[in-house]
Amino acid sequence: MSDPSRESAPRSTTDPSRRSLLGAALGGGAGLLLLDRRTATAAAVPRDSAIADTATWGARDPRATIDVLDHAPSKIVVHHTATPNGTDYSRAHAFALARSVQDHHMDVNGWIDTGQHFTISRGGYATEGRHHSLAAVLDGSRHVVGAHTAGQNRLAVGIENEGTYDELDPRDAQYTRLVELCARLCRRYDIAPHEIYGHRDFNATDCPGDRLHALLGQLRSDVAAEVGGDPTGVSWPLLRSGDAGDPVRVLQYLLNEHGASLTADGVYGPATESAVGDFQRSTGAVVDGLAGNQTWNQAVRERGSGDRGPAVRAVQHRLGTAVDGIFGPNTATAVRSFQADRGITTDGVVRVRTWRALLR
Length: 360
Hints:
Layout: H1 16-25, H2 54-57, E1 68-69, E2 75-80, H3 91-107, E3 118-120, E4 126-128, H4 133-139, E5 143-144, E6 156-161, H5 172-189, E7 196-198, H6 210-214, H7 216-227, H8 246-257, H9 270-283, H10 293-299, H11 310-319, H12 329-342, H13 352-358
Parallel strand pairs: 2-6, 2-7, 3-6
Antiparallel strand pairs: 1-5, 3-4
Helix pairs in contact: 1-3, 5-7, 8-11
């Protein structure tokens, strides 16, 4: 049986085999009415706002022990199922969807259980996906390792949205429930709204569709209106062969954190380009040797007091402190001072906004 932390990277959710299998299981196919969220009559969000757990919708038992980590996730990744945009908005259909997704993930992908943590149907019903995900949220300090986004399964909560959103927006009921669920996760886990992403922000996939991905800025804003915080997403610089400077040196340190053996000389030469390509392959990103959004999103990791390693060296180099790779009191003080100067939350922890500021 496979270990959940070693499950293979999820297939692109635009995979025709997945689309046809789930569509057949759910009774989808020809004659389905496609509804645009902006033009369709708004459907009422179901009154029952609870998330139906795995027992409620009749899940199969997982094939192996689910890995539960003793730390909270730091981000949310939004997906679409790439199945037909059906017109059955009932609770029963939402449960049938949950069973079909689990069957596909276990029987076709070979995973131990449903890959994502939660699923939202087009009718606006939310179901638990991977076992123990809801209990982890209620606890507030644990995270279930999923199989929804290669390179991020130990760090991110995955939410699937029923449907295909390349040309159409989700229905109002579905989008409203997505906002509610994201806000709940942000509150419970202290996730910042700007840490809401789409699957394609990390992996080589079209998921969650052009239209849903374009809505992520609005989603962050709507969640921020509920929980507070700056919803502005982070955009990373694009580095390539021939570039030189401190951003390249930071990239080299981060690649070393993930197993490369580069000299952090600040020069984007052949060795760095090769290391970027290797890292992209290992994380399921687009393999082009260019360090853009996917590469940075995969490479950066939260670092704070007590941490050690190349990523800490990157921070210390940019702050002008002793570069010993140990995040001690002097480094924490320097980080707080840097954050205060840049208008970043002054907590001494290097999260995504601090990383981005360090590259300027």
